[in-house]
Amino acid sequence: MMDDLDLLRDFGRELEHEPPATLARQRDRHLRVRPRRRWTGWWTAGLVAVATALAVAVPAVLVGGRAPAPPSAGGVGAVDVSGALNVLLIGSDTRDGDGNARYGPRMRGAGARSDSIVIVHLPADRGRATAVSVPRDSMVPIPRCGSSPARTDMINSAYDTGGASCLRTALEKLTGLRIAHTVEVDFTGFKSMVDALGGVEVTLPRAVDDRASKLRLPAGKSMLNGEAALGYARLRHYGDGSDVARIKRQAQLLRAMLDKVKTAAADPQRLRAFLGEVRAAVRTDLDLEAMYQLADGLRQTSVTFVTVPYAPHPRDRNRLQWKQPEARRLFDGLR
Amino acid sequence: MITQPAVGGADSELVSASWTQPEAFSALFDRYSAMLYRYVSRRLGPEPAEDLVGETFLVAFSRRKSYDLAYADARPWLFGILTKLISRHHRSEAARYRTLLRAPVDQDVESPADRVAAGVTAQAARGKLAGALAALPAKDRDVLLLIAWGDLTYEEVATALGIPVGTVRSRLNRGRRKVRAALGDTNPMLEEE
């Protein structure tokens, strides 16, 4: 005898479909896409903001205030910086070179790691720039470059072994974007830019006495020179010690720098000096003329900071992998 | 609906293994993806089924750490997640039943042999069942179908939906009453209890 549930079951069987072979595609989805978790390297995002500001926003604000006389065209090889443009910014943690060794003497000769990697996308109309930070621990396929073989490794190893050009090649392959220029900033470069600004002012809720970064500051307002600003940007053991707090401090520093730049922009003399300092503090394939043009075009540009969507790597908690299709979508949107 | 037998330990063991080895979670997929697929295909058709099954395991994976290991059988948990996901499609689900109300089910779709005897009655009732399902409030439909199509017990449905067993009973009774009312005029045999 059929009751209502039996009839319903029967009806269900009629409606049922067998799973197709393609269902297998869903099997390991959880290994590819995984929930966002707090990642200890988060602070990179803050450094990235600072590096980006230095290399792009700062000259932009500078030029935006009162343009210095554009330096004479660089003759041969003058770079075309019009149209949509992607610039790769590398905040390097090299301990080699003048002055850098003090920030980790034991790491001298250990090569340069890209501490922060940012792709700045400038649309043709320069209305809204997007700074995409790439977590340095991202496990990605890295194409053969120079003497290093093709492999899957952390993205910053491309820089470590092959320098900016290899990192650029790897990123172009990964993102599908053409990266026109690279700008590298290291610890020393950061310092000298702050110094060129005559220091930056920050207000601290309580005193800092940090042995790790050798930074001692009283509570309240302090004027930081390049050295102290770098220490402040890298400070870990302060406040609640969280990465989020650290990012906030870096943002605070960034704002202070931008304020200073705006003031400085009123004085053509200081301005010119600063722009030259920026050029000296970074390693880039952009000459002063190109930087000027780029900065000039960026006067009204606002910068949006995003991070490549990522998830912890399934095989190693301390590594990351890009979240797909989100990452692809992000870069497609920048084309 | 056939449930795959548990091979190689309880579901809960797989879930706890996946806490440290994410790959272990794929075994849970192997165990239940087909079952969940069939269930969704009944409710929403084959088109969204594949993605919904994938999403169910994705959500489950993200919540694996809060899985209560006292439950050896993960089916209620998975069905609970799936039900939540299906609820986003309630409108298209109702629309699907309404379509079935008008059009006969494609007989080319495999029909198990054990169904043939009851087939005649079922076919007569099909349109009415579809109409009743379309008209049911989503919550009652969830309970009714988890029992009729998901083969869950009352207790399992309660676990799946996070509601008391008493609520499962009352929703089921309400749902069945409406289904019976829809069938009522053609099928007097259904008077029972």
UniProtKB/TrEMBL annotation, chain A:
Transmembrane segments: 39-62
Keyword Membrane recorded: yes
Keywords associated with the record: Membrane, Transmembrane, Transmembrane helix
InterPro entries reported for this sequence: LytR/CpsA/Psr_CW_biosynth, LytR_CpsA_psr
Transmembrane recorded as keyword: yes
Source taxon at top rank: Bacteria
Pfam families tied to this protein: LytR_cpsA_psr
Name used for this protein in its record: Transcriptional attenuator, LytR family
Family as reported in the entry's similarity comment: Belongs to the LytR/CpsA/Psr (LCP) family.
Originating species: Nonomuraea pusilla
PANTHER family: POLYISOPRENYL-TEICHOIC ACID--PEPTIDOGLYCAN TEICHOIC ACID TRANSFERASE TAGU (PTHR33392:SF6)
Residues annotated as domain Cell envelope-related transcriptional attenuator: 113-262
From TrEMBL, chain B:
PANTHER family with a match to the protein in the record: RNA POLYMERASE ECF-TYPE SIGMA FACTO, RNA POLYMERASE SIGMA FACTOR RFAY-RELATED
Molecular function, one GO term: sigma factor activity
Pfam families: Sigma70_r2 (PF04542), Sigma70_r4_2 (PF08281)
The UniProt record lists the keyword Transcription regulation: yes
Name assigned to this protein: RNA polymerase sigma-70 factor, ECF subfamily
Family matches, as NCBIfam families: sigma70-ECF
Domain RNA polymerase sigma-70 region residue range list: 28-94
Gene Ontology biological process terms, A to Z: DNA-templated transcription initiation
SUPFAM superfamilies for the chain: Sigma2 domain of RNA polymerase sigma factors, Sigma3 and sigma4 domains of RNA polymerase sigma factors
